[in-house]
Amino acid sequence: MAKRDYSFYPGCSSQKGASASNCTTSINAICDVLKIQLNEIPDWNCCSASIGYAGGGELPRLTLSARNLALSEQHNPGQDVVATCAACWLATRETTERLAHDDQLFTETKIALKEAGLTLQNKTPVRHFVEVLIEDVGYDALKAAVKKPLTGIKIASYVGCQTNRPFGIAGESFENPLYLDKLTEAMGATALKDYDKKVACCGGALAFSEPEKSQDLIKDILQAAYDVGADMIVTPCPVCQMNVEVYQGLINQRHGTNFNMPVVYYSTLMAVAYGKSASESGLDGQVIRAKQLDALAGR
């Protein structure tokens, strides 16, 4: 398998000790198997996916992502920018789209970047890591790398909002995207096709301002997974993973439920299937242990 190079934008939540650091761990594990080289953008900054909408203004918000793009052009020329965080991917891709279609905004952004000694061409594609897996590697090659098939594990594929709208994954339905189902099936697991909350919002933006509303949305996502007999939920989104996993105890207290559903990244599933250890697969970062994956990784 030929080596592939990409300019990597990790984002805040993927840093060591942050909420999605185990996502980065598992991504690195599967990159090792698939001969993918992620070249981190030097001195990258927050994409402002959350705080940028809280009153900072459009130009500063877009310029933060534009700075990352300019740094990528400078240090990793010719390489597609790849993000593993759904929010980072969405914010960065939005920036490229907005600047490409608004000359005045692009001019103002370039003026701001010039103050930092940077220039921007805005010609670099921005891609989610799952796009790299699907489009550049392909399902057949992903399946061929499996060493420990996830036979008998029943998966509810929870895509969430941010990798689905407004851009989505090329060729996928907005209402019923199938790429997570296909990825889990390539790993030997059973994808539960009748799971009907795969694109529902988890209420991540409301987690602190209106927590009960957010938790009610999470409750529906979890209940739907139990209703179809899922062993665990798999997601590509750090916000979804954290939200749906960590609030289950509070939801149980409020509603008298007994949820205890593991919520894992697609990359964690893949790392286990590729024969990586529990630590290499990011399983150590689970709040609710994925015992089936722990057992398989420990063999």
Summarize the structure.
With 299 residues, this protein is α/β, with parallel strands linked by helices. The chain is built from 12 helices and 8 strands.
Strand content: 5-15%
By DSSP, the count of extended strands is: 8
- The computed structural class is alpha/beta
Mean pLDDT: 93
Number of helices: 12
Q: Helix content range of the residues, please?
A: 40-55%
Count structural domains. Answer: 2
- How far is the N terminus from the C terminus? 26 Å
Order of helices and strands: EHEHEHHEHHEHEHEHHEHH
- Main beta sheet, described? 4 strands, parallel
The name of the CATH architecture of the largest domain is 3-Layer(aba) Sandwich
Structure description:
It is a single chain. The protein is α/β, with parallel strands linked by helices. The chain has 2 domains: 4-129, Glutathione S-transferase Yfyf (Class Pi), Chain A, domain 2 (Up-down Bundle), CATH 1.20.1050; 147-297, Rossmann fold. It is built from 12 helices and 8 strands. The chain has helices at residues 21-34, 58-75, 86-101, 103-114, 129-137, 139-144, 179-186, 211-227, 238-246, 248-255, 266-273, 291-297, and strands at residues 4-9, 36-40, 81-83, 126-128, 154-157, 190-191, 232-235, 263-265. The chain has a 4-stranded parallel beta sheet with strand order 2-1-3-4. Helix 7 (179-186) links the parallel strand 5 and strand 6 (190-191). The chain starts with a strand and ends with a helix.
